[in-house]
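Consider today's protein:

***
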Amino acid sequence: MAKAAKATFVCQNCGAVSTRWTGKCASCEEWNTLVEETVPGPAPPGTGLAASSRGRVVALEPLSGSTEAAPRLPTGLEELDRVTGGGIVPGSALLIGGEPGIGKSTLLLQLCASIGSRGQRAVYFSGEEAVAQIRLRAERLGLSRAPVALASETNLANILATLADGRRPDLVVIDSIQTLWADALEAAPGTVSQVRAATQALIRFAKSYGSALLLVGHVTKEGQIAGPKVVEHMVDTVLYFEGDRGHPFRILRAVKNRFGATDEIGVFEMVNQGLREVANPSELFLGDRDAHTPGSAVFAGIEGTRPLLVEIQALVAPTSLGTPRRAVVGWDANRLSMLLAVLDARCGVSFAQNDVYLNVAGGLKITEPAADLAAAAALLSSISGIPLPQNQVFFGEISLSGAVRAASHMTTRLKEAQKLGFGQAVLPQAGELDVSALTLSLQRIPHLKKLAEQLAPCD
């Protein structure tokens, strides 16, 4: 007699499986994340489904040999092509996540319209919006005449049957993967088993038919894509759409890419007609800069292969609290604490009686260590009340000893600053630099104390 299906409890945060319900997951220690899911029992004997098949011998190949570059499907959006490594590879699967309302559906609708306008077939499945709502967005974006096939469907079997019928689609968009459900699983849409099964079936279709698959994923309150982490391992590319609703800029960042670099970003601006590509983001991030106010420093950064100049703002004010406040937007709070400790211990500049506020203008998030020197310059300028020169840029990593370490792509950063009209640069003393094509006045400092002496002399 065949065994009946048994119930297990699966954590919706980490995917851990438990035989009984508990209030807290033993793996990730999150509360109230265990959901009961039914695991189908083994196939009954005599059907031939339970017997294991004998495998075949696989031909082994040497590591050396010639390989051809993967073909690309140009998206018509240069910023998206930059992030994906030159276009979407047919047969690949991409996962894009972002905050609600950040513009994911707008970007994907513009992508489908661009693909369809070139005579290729783009299919858009929405599990959250009706076709009428998508049409309204298309009219607002001026894309209502684009040849895009739309459907509002959440049943996985119906979606696969529709895709297999008729002409092979070049691009398939699923918005979103958490809304799909499979008939064979007795679980609610969005659970670990449903998301895993839907993703696996869609990827199998994309690999078999050579269609590019783009999945939209919900994010948690921490900003991570919801659902099991195995989904990010299954797809070929993982993209995050970042931005602040108070700013029009949107950053498309690749955190995984099997066909390109993982440190490239694409910059968009949200306008009434949708998302507009930003070819030179440095000019926009510095457009509203007030250079005569203390606490403003320009950081010459690198995002992938693209140089990017952004303003770092600092405000140091006397505190009325027993414990001074430290507030950071767009930068790592732990990095700020370390920098304040270095300024106190190595340069004699104390912030113990002051509230410190640090902000990266434009809603951009900076993770590069080379921003340390620009942040330190903004802090020193604010506490001393001395504005920094208007045409000066900073970059360099600061160690716990106060030494300023070299950064990567130093010449590229300086060339971008020179192109935008900056005439001075404060940078690490170490590191190779090609000064043949540079006209900037360079100030190379070995230690943070030298910069502190110029703005806030040590006691």
In short: DSSP finds eleven helices and 21 strands in the chain.
